[in-house]
Every structure is written in C-alpha cells, then in structure tokens.
Amino acid sequence: MKVVLRYLGARAAFSSQRARSLTGSNHAWRRFDRAGWFAGCKDHSQRDGVSRARHFCASPEKHSDARPLLVWNDEEQMVKDATRKFALESVAPLVKQMDRDAKMDAGLLGQMFANGYMGTEVSAEYGGSEMTFTQTCLIVEELARVDPAVSVIVDIHNTLNNRILSQWGSEQQKQAVLSRMATQSLSSFCLSEAGAGSDAFALRTTATESKDGGSVFVLNGAKMWISNAAEAEFFIVFASVDLQLGYKGITAFLVERAASGLEIGKKEDKLGIRASSCCEVRFDSVRVPVENIIGQTGHGYKIAIESLNEGRIGIGAQMVGLAQGALDAVIPYSMERKQFGKPIASFQGMQFQIAQALTEVEAARLLVYNAARLKDSGRPFQTEAAYAKLFASQIAQKVASQCIDWAGGVGFTREYSMEKFYRDAKIGQIYEGTSNMQLATIAKNMLPKWTTG
C-alpha cells in the first residue's frame, strides 16, 4: 500500500496535458491582445466591462478549470479509498480491545509505518510518502471514521513532529532522525506543562548551557499530557534558555528516549481516545548536544506556533471523521429500529434531525479542506485553521451526542460504537488549542478589518 500512497506526480502530468490541450485553434478566444482584451472576439462592442465578463464566463472551458472543493483528484481519491480499506480491515477489528486496554496495538502501529501513514509529507529521500497536506487530512479523516484514537497518533506524528524536522531540522537531523520517524519510530511533541496549557509559553522547563564550553544543554522540568509518550522514541521538547527572555528564549530540542534523565511518568486514564497514550515526561539534568537544537536558539516559539496552526487543521479532519463515523453507525440502525410500528428514520422529525447533522458535518468538512488547500497553496491559513478546528470540534460533539439519542438505550451501551465516538469527541475542544483560543485567534485576525479612522 505504501506504493499506492506515494505521490506520483500525476497532477503535474495532468496539468501539462491540460495546457497542451488549450493551445489549439478552438481556444483562440482565450488569447489576449496587448490591451488585455479578448483577441478572439470579433465584435469589439463586446469589450465593455459587462459584456466582456459575460463573454469570458460563458465559456465551458473556463468553467472546467474550476474544481469543487471536495471533488478529489486521482491521487487524493486513491489515498482516501486505500485508507478506508485499511481502516475497515486492519483497524476496526482492534478498536474495542484497544479502547478497553487503553493501549495502541503494536502490530497495528507497525502496519501504519509499513504502509506509509507515518511519513505522509516527508520527502522520499528520508523514507517518506511525499503527499500533500490535503492527502494527510484525508488519511486522518478516514482513520477517525473508525477510531479517532488511531487517527490522532497519525496526525500528531505527521502534522507536528515530522513537519518540524522537515522544515527546520538540519540535514544531519533529517538523515539520522527524520528518516526513522518516517519509517519506524514514533515521536512526541512536548510543549504543555502543568502551569502552561492555553498559555503554553509560560513554560518553566529550562535548557542551560553546560559549563564545558557550551557544546551541551542541560534540560530540567516536566511536560504534561504528552500524546504518544508511552511509545515514542523521539521527543521534540520546548524549553527556555533564559526565562527572563520570555517567549524569545524558547528553543526546540530533539531528545532521544534513551537519554539519561528522561523519564516517562504516569499514563493518564482518559475519558476518550484511550488507545493514544498521554503521559507526563520528566527531564532531570538531561544532557542534549547543541547539534540537537532544531532551527536556532530562541526560535522555538515560531516553530511551535506555525506547527500548531497546521496541526489544528488535522484535528479538524479528525473531528469530521469522528462525526461521520458516528453517523455511519447510527443511520442504518435508525432504518431498522422501529417505534409505533415504523422505522424511526421514516418519521419526518427524525429525517430533519439527520439532514441537519449531515449538513453541519459537510460544512465542517468544507472548512477543514479549505484550510488544507490554503496550506498546500502556500497562502496564509491561520484564521481558516481556527475556523476549521473550532467548528469541526463543536459539530463532532453535537453529532456524537445526537447519535446516542437516536439509538436509544443501545446507544448508551458499549455494544455499539456511538458511546465511544461521544467520549472521543470531547478532546477536540481541548487539545492543540481550546475552542476559546480558536475564538481569540479569529477575533484577533478578523476584527481589525472593521477598524476605522
């Protein structure tokens, strides 16, 4: 499947073919003269603004260039279909056991590495699958339809840790570590602390230069609620080289699990996404060579912020997949469950509720993939990422709750998956920036547009 998931460059070939197809005489109307008008337009009276626009927009060729936001190209559809198949065949049989044991199945994790899911956007030079960010979101969504816990393992590893090393890591770090993270080694993103949640940059973990010439930094402190920590072999740790500098002192370090003084603390007994481990990580005089600084000293704030903006889109995709998975489970049941001698799905009141839920999930999906495509195109996407995470997490919790209502008593039992989706949904409004933090981002970025004077 890894070959299937690799980006094959078909889009470039398609674009080239499309460009060649537009050079024939049938498309002469698209040529412009030096004045910017349509050279193929015989009636120059049409060159007034309205007629010109009407003439241009009426062309079927022009319309064919536009791709609806949720119409996937060949590679995207292939990734989506392959992941759906993998989720149903390899993930679904393990979901209940992993949730009950609060533990990721080691064999499944190995399959995800083997199939290319753990190095989605990493260059093939380092063992990655060279996908787009949109394709990564499709993977996260499809996995979340079956198990949101599995999807978040993939999401964090790719959109935060792999992304950080791909963009800011040194060549040595990429060769030695990124290549392993893309093919065999799980990683953790260590930012949050007991007193630094939403105010993440109030962190107190320190990195002090050693007294032996400054070739080593010594890390002391503790990180809380660290995803993937129980299984991770590498940790991207944010620590301050000087607390007096505030956010300007924050630096990102690459730390191996085997480092002396690094200790994995208590594994949290969580409400949801239980197969994804969440632990305290402690650093007691952990010596880290200066070569393990990611980027530059004092640039950790920038690295964390930019990575979290991308990660929030991934969480939006997870929440969309979760909501879709809950609907996938309950809608067929609503067609079988009878009340007053009729399937409950035959009642207009029930149909309207389902229709409303489907509409809201589709709206959330549009927000997520709009943000993803903005990211892929190199355009600013911070506000759109906040829109996506905020709304998708709200809808996931709402829809998961409704699905239990529609299922009745069985929805409240562990026999069906609705109760798990409900438990898993809550975290979407908390991690990688709470809903209030998304609202703050949106307000900060958008309100100045109405400022006058």
Automatic annotation (TrEMBL):
Presence of keyword Membrane: no
GO CC term, one of those recorded: mitochondrial matrix
Catalytic reactions of this protein: valproyl-CoA + oxidized [electron-transfer flavoprotein] + H(+) = (2E)-2-propylpent-2-enoyl-CoA + reduced [electron-transfer flavoprotein]; (2R)-2-methylbutanoyl-CoA + oxidized [electron-transfer flavoprotein] + H(+) = ethylacryloyl-CoA + reduced [electron-transfer flavoprotein]; hexanoyl-CoA + oxidized [electron-transfer flavoprotein] + H(+) = (2E)-hexenoyl-CoA + reduced [electron-transfer flavoprotein]; 2-methylpropanoyl-CoA + oxidized [electron-transfer flavoprotein] + H(+) = 2-methylpropenoyl-CoA + reduced [electron-transfer flavoprotein]
Pathway membership: Lipid metabolism; mitochondrial fatty acid beta-oxidation; Amino-acid degradation; L-isoleucine degradation
Biological processes, Gene Ontology terms: carboxylic acid catabolic process; fatty acid metabolic process
Enzyme Commission designation: 1.3.8.5
Keyword terms, alphabetized: Acetylation, FAD, Fatty acid metabolism, Flavoprotein, Lipid metabolism, Mitochondrion, Oxidoreductase, Phosphoprotein, Transit peptide
Superkingdom, natural source: Eukaryota
Domain Acyl-CoA oxidase/dehydrogenase middle: 188-286
InterPro entries hit by this protein: Acyl-CoA_DH_CS (IPR006089), Acyl-CoA_Oxase/DH_mid-dom (IPR006091), Acyl-CoA_Oxase/DH_mid-dom_sf (IPR046373), AcylCo_DH-like_C (IPR036250), AcylCo_DH/oxidase_C (IPR009075), AcylCoA_DH/ox_N (IPR013786), AcylCoA_DH/ox_N_sf (IPR037069), AcylCoA_DH/oxidase_NM_dom_sf (IPR009100)
Subunit-level organization: Homotetramer.
Protein name as annotated: Short/branched chain specific acyl-CoA dehydrogenase, mitochondrial
